[in-house]
Design brief:
Elements: H1 5-26, E1 32-36, E2 43-46, E3 51-54, E4 58-62, H2 66-87, E5 92-93, H3 94-100, H4 112-126, E6 135-136, E7 143-146, E8 149-154, E9 157-162, E10 172-173, E11 183-185, E12 193-196, H5 199-207, H6 210-214, E13 217-220, H7 227-240, E14 244-247, H8 252-262, H9 272-275, E15 281-282, H10 287-292, E16 298-299, H11 302-311, H12 320-332, E17 334-335, H13 348-360
Parallel strand pairs: 5-6, 12-13, 12-14, 14-15
Antiparallel strand pairs: 1-4, 2-3, 7-10, 7-13, 8-9, 8-11, 16-17
Helix pairs in contact: 1-2, 11-12
Length: 364
């Protein structure tokens, strides 16, 4: 079974990375690798794409000490492992790669975080995707329910699934790779796609017949969204011009969920153009909603307060809306879950709250 053009390109990029390290050593130089500094002080707004990307600040890794030498050794072993699994038409989870390194001697990873970060580093240097490396995350838990058909790869070939007629109310499970070569989105007349943070709210909207009434697509994010989930939302928005909205809890961590969907996450800013949907609009619980809809609340924890203050210096939250809502939440000292809307009845979210929010945006 031969490799396709994409696989061949990926293997070539990885081979080039290892080759450059070898050439430096062969020339009597200390091998080094330059990477963008991956922190919020090095993300810049790209006015051409309306997402946040890494800026020009760089960090250099070299073999000047033992720890760095071990990291460079892990890089070579990881490149070889990925090359082998691409050539053998296999894939592995990030967790499996961590355990496979047990057989790499001094190159073994000491933690899952180490292996995850190295996979991301290789993405940055090679300009390939983790999906190109055939590295899968653990199951994301993300599901889709609504008026859309997907033609997707299965072990027995391509299969078309309608995400209302052909699935249970749990929805269609989003695979780790949603690129067009193995995952096609069929044309749909859905009016909007709504990304929902919690499974309870996802189930509530399905039970209340929200998709039938408003001809929409619901995506359960299952907390912080996986890359494939963000990519799917972007494809729906970009390829079919379907407006996207994000419905989350009202707390700093949920605000970051929206930011990762709309603007890109800091640790994946190198692929924000590929994952982020800058047109996505926030319809989650805000400090203003807590007051206007008289919602039950919980007290902000010290971690919540620290996170909100950090967001005030996060370039993704610098517009007037976010500054006002974050400052109001800090002043109130309160947060609320999206399911707090049930205090007004199980139908309140679909009869009142969401129609208000979506109506303000002109989507219904």
């Amino acid at each position: 079974m031969t490799m396709n053009e994409r696989d061949t390109k990926t293997v070539g990029k990885l081979t080039s990375i290892v080759g450059q390290l070898y050439d430096q050593m062969d020339a009597g130089e200390v091998p080094e690798m330059s990477l963008p500094l991956r922190s919020k002080k090095n993300i810049e707004f790209n006015t051409a794409t309306n997402v946040w990307n890494y800026g020009n600040m760089q960090t250099v890794r070299s073999l000047k000490n033992l720890n760095a030498a071990h990291m460079m050794l892990r890089t070579v072993y990881t490149c070889d492992f990925i090359k082998q699994q691409i050539e053998e038409h296999k894939s592995s989870t990030l967790r499996e790669m961590y355990y496979i390194s047990e057989g790499w001697g001094k190159a073994k990873f000491h933690s899952q975080d180490e292996s995850n970060l190295l996979a991301e580093d290789l993405e940055v240097v090679s300009k390939c995707m983790r999906e190109d490396f055939k590295l899968r995350p653990e199951e994301s838990g993300a599901h889709v329910y609504g008026n859309v058909r997907f033609t997707h790869q299965t072990r027995k070939g391509m299969k078309t699934t309608h995400c209302m007629d052909d699935v249970a109310e749990t929805g269609f499970a989003v695979p780790y790779n949603v690129e067009n070569d193995t995952f096609k989105i069929e044309k749909t007349d859905a009016k909007f796609v709504m990304a929902i943070e919690t499974g309870g709210m996802f189930a509530r909207l399905i039970e209340n017949g929200f998709c039938d009434k408003y001809n929409c697509i619901l995506v359960h994010l299952s907390g912080q969204p996986a890359r494939s989930t963000r990519r799917l939302i972007k494809r729906l928005n970009e390829e079919y011009k379907i407006p996207a909205v994000v419905f989350t809890d009202g707390d700093p961590w949920s605000f970051r969920i929206h930011a990762s969907v709309a603007y890109g996450a800091i640790k994946t800013a190198h692929i924000s153009d590929y994952l982020a949907t800058p047109q996505a609009q926030f319809i989650g619980i805000t400090a203003s909603d807590i007051l206007n809809y008289e919602l039950p609340t919980d007290k902000l924890s010290e971690k919540d307060i620290g996170a909100l203050n950090a967001e005030l210096s996060d370039p993704r939250f610098t517009d007037e809306f976010w500054i006002s809502e974050i400052q109001t939440m800090l002043k109130m000292g309160k947060k609320a879950e999206q399911q707090a809307l049930a205090s007004h009845g199980l139908d309140y979210v679909t009869d009142k709250y969401l129609p208000d929010k979506l109506g303000d945006l002109g989507l219904i």
